[in-house]
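Handout for the seminar on molecular recognition.
Each group receives one record of this type.
Step one: identify the two inputs.
Step two: read the structure output and locate the region that could contact zinc ion.
Step three: write two sentences on what you found, then compare them with the reference statements printed after the record.
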Amino acid sequence: MKKRTVLGLAVVTGVVGSLVAGVRYANMKKALRTGEVDGWIQGVLGDIVPYEIKSDIEVPAFIKDDKSMVYFRFSDADLMTIAMNPQSFKDTVQSIAAHELGHALDPELESIQEYVHHCVRTQDYDGFRRQVMDREQRAWDIGRQYAPNKKFFDKFNKQNMKVYAMQIGLQKGAFK
Ligand SMILES: [Zn+2]
């Protein structure tokens, strides 16, 4: 089974009108089709880590535990969610990329992941929570210098931490 680092899709609240959202959605589809999105991603990742856009992955983005590849989803549902919020698609794409790059450049990622899996095996909920939150905070800290829009990146990561805290809370029942 492939181990993976998950990233909760950050959504900045505040819904705009559906007509505007429709136009924004169409523009995002076009940006994906024309390779504009690839340019935004490459502008952040450079040659440091390869990536693929795969619309059928389970989470919005993740990096393999061995750091060999970053995956981005950008499914229609993801795009609709972004379209309905007043956030820039480019800022969103580049913040996700900088966050994943933060994981890629984290010298502790592999050992943290090993510990996360250990905590799951030994049913250590507190250890699991601590390690996952630490892993996400580290991606925020390390990736920040690569984010073109740092204000947005901070907002994005703050939301990511909230999503993780919530998801981990929901997983508590799976532990003893
Ligand atoms: Zn992450």
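Reference statements: The first helix runs from residue 18 to 33. The helical segments are 18-33, 36-45, 76-83, 89-104, 109-121, 125-143, 150-171.
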